[in-house]
Amino acid sequence: MPSLPPALANGPQYAWELATLYPQQGAWDEVEYLHLTDGSNRRIELTGGVLEFLPLPTLKHQTLAGFFYHALLAFVTKHDLGVVPFPPIRVRSPAGQIREPDALFLSKANSRWLHNRVFEGADLVAEVVSGDAKDRKRDLVTKHAEYAQAGISEYWVIDPEQRVVLVYKLTGAEYALHGRFESGEADSVLLTGFALDVEALFAAADSVPE
């Protein structure tokens, strides 16, 4: 067994051998992933056999996600359109990938995709972008492509760094930008009549102290 770096060798003594009981990165499958995450409160996603550990959400992140979730839930409930499960909920994107969007909507027409542990799909998903460069790429590039490939009709991106809400609609096999909203109301193509007050959204996050 290779020796540990001095910083680790002199620190807390962990049962490093425990890691050998699990697959290597790149070799995880869905069964192993579900077994691990069912017993964990960490936000972990699976893509290409690799576990991706998401950052712990800040209160600002949760405030933005909660604002969107409650607005979406109220609209869908009022019009009896489907389900807006309380997050986190695991959803399959392309084969072998499982994501945990910050919010999702599943229509009655696609209720067959609803399952207890992992949704087979969704009609609308939303992500609040975290500040780290790696996390920004995940939400703005990687998931953008994955959710389109999964056939999810609408993708909302709430970007607190740029103070903008991006709404993408599925056109063919790719997303087209429906709107970039820095003020006023961000509206949905899929859910006619659903709109989000962008200024109120970011004002809610601004009320959270640093």
Automatic annotation (TrEMBL):
Q: Which organism is it from?
A: Pirellulimonas nuda
Look up the domain of life of the source. Bacteria
Checking PANTHER family in the record gives: SLL0198 PROTEIN-RELATED, SLL1222 PROTEIN
InterPro entries listed in its UniProt record: Nuclease_put_TT1808, Restrct_endonuc-II-like, Uma2
Q: Name one Pfam family in it.
A: Uma2
Task: Indicate what this protein is called per its UniProt record.
Answer: Putative restriction endonuclease domain-containing protein
Domain annotation Putative restriction endonuclease: ranges: 32-199
